[in-house]
Design a protein that fits this description.
The chain has 377 residues and is α+β, with helices and mostly antiparallel strands. The protein has three domains: 123 residues, Butyryl-Coa Dehydrogenase, subunit A, domain 1 (Orthogonal Bundle); 107 residues, Beta Barrel (Butyryl-CoA Dehydrogenase, subunit A, domain 2); 138 residues, Butyryl-CoA Dehydrogenase, subunit A, domain 3, CATH 1.20.140.10. Helices cover 55% and strands 14% of the residues. The protein is built from 14 helices and eight strands. Strands 1, 2, 3, 4, 5, 6, 7 and 8 form an eight-stranded mixed sheet that branches. Helix 1 packs antiparallel against helix 2 and helix 5 runs antiparallel to helix 6.
């Protein structure tokens, strides 16, 4: 177990057994696959199921817990542990956690009861088709899906370009507007085996290739009422938005910690010249510790809906993305030419950090929303 993994476990206020189990899975099962995931696009499905069995997808979901408590800080810590080793798996974990979060926030109790336990346990794997939704509600693009009300549900048409952690037997959450009812949208859980729905491999990526990312094509796809999460999409997004973004902090925290560890690993050999670089590991560690502390504190109130609270969440998400870019550049500079090797962690972390910076909400999206909030206040 790495020093940084042990540090997270020691700092855990809640189920250390889950974090210890997640750390063992990372070391024993994920680490041997990391290069294949990165270079060959291997999807770590077995690891995802193992993480679910260890309870790593459950802490933030009161509906899936015997005690009915909400412990999002532990979900963030678990995702950070995974992301330190492999962000493809960490991102798939975020998709899984977020799909569960959609169900936790469902108005329709039957869809929550039918699915949230299976997602929390990792028996069913799930994705999040809300990138378009978040951009649409921020005024960046239009909603891509449209549903027509029919007897017993909705018929949906349209497409989403990239949705991750999908496959046969998987589910994901997404939002569509309603034909004939301007301004109204509906949030639903989509089964990838639904008739009229198709997954299409449309691109290959230089990073995060092992995340089962597909284009989602809806052609007269029927979504029954039993799969509707909320008939008021805007209200749903307001209720769930903070948790969606908070969970992403686990990815950023993990990537930054791994970059700091890379810098420290080369100190015995290169410290005498690396001392002239900016963003030295001890300096980055102090910033990361502050960001982590703030992240876990905010995560205690993930059900909060106020604009002031959400502004804090967005600002922290921006901070983590910017810190990831700095830390990854530092790792490359500290490593030097060896960082260019195909198997080198430094160049992989650089690509991963750019993903943290551009995944919705991207840095430019975050700055747009924060600027608009400032203007409105």
């Amino acid at each position: 177990m790495s020093e940084s993994a042990a540090r997270l476990i020691d700092a855990a206020d809640h189920p250390t057994s889950m974090l210890e189990a997640a750390a063992r899975i990372v070391h024993e099962d994920l680490k041997p696959l990391t290069l294949k995931i990165d270079l060959e696009g291997l999807y770590p499905q077995a690891v995802m199921h193992q993480l679910g069995a260890a309870g790593a997808f459950r802490p933030h979901l009161p509906a899936a817990r015997a005690d009915g408590a909400m412990d999002m800080p532990s979900s963030i810590k678990a995702m950070s542990l995974v992301s330190q080793e492999c962000l493809s798996t960490g991102f798939s974990m975020w998709c899984q956690d977020t799909c569960g979060w959609y169900l936790q926030n469902a108005v329709n109790s039957s869809v929550r009861e039918n699915w949230v336990g299976r997602l929390a346990e990792g028996h069913v794997l799930g994705g999040t088709g809300m990138s378009n939704t978040m951009k649409a509600f921020a005024g960046i693009e239009e909603l891509r899906l449209r549903g027509k009300r029919v007897d017993g549900g909705y018929v949906v048409n349209g497409s989403l370009p990239w949705v991750s952690n999908l496959g046969a037997g998987h589910v994901f959450g997404t939002l569509f507007d309603v034909e004939g009812e301007p301004g109204r949208s509906v949030m639903a859980l989509v089964d990838c085996d639904t008739q009229g729905f198709q997954l299409r491999l449309s691109a290959h990526f230089t990073a995060l290739e092992g995340t089962r990312t597909f284009a989602c094509i809806f052609q007269e796809a029927f979504i029954p009422d039993a799969m509707i999460i909320d008939d008021d999409g805007a209200a749903f997004l307001r209720r769930s938005r903070a948790g969606i973004v908070l969970l992403q902090l686990g990815m950023g925290l993990g990537v930054v910690q791994s970059c700091i560890d890379i810098c420290r690993d080369v100190e015995p050999m290169l410290g005498h010249v690396n001392c002239y670089l900016e963003d030295r590991p001890d300096e980055l560690q102090l910033e990361l510790d502050d960001t982590e502390e703030a992240s876990l504190a905010l995560a205690e109130d993930a059900f909060e809906e106020s604009d002031d609270y959400f502004r804090e969440v967005l600002q922290l998400r921006l901070t983590s993305g910017e810190l990831a870019l700095r830390a990854a550049q530092s790792a490359m500079l500290h490593t030097g030419a060896k960082g260019y090797l195909q198997s080198a962690p430094a160049q992989r972390k650089l690509r991963e950090a750019y993903f943290v910076a551009i995944v919705t909400p991207a840095i430019k999206h975050l700055r747009k929303e924060l600027a608009e909030m400032d203007q409105a206040s």
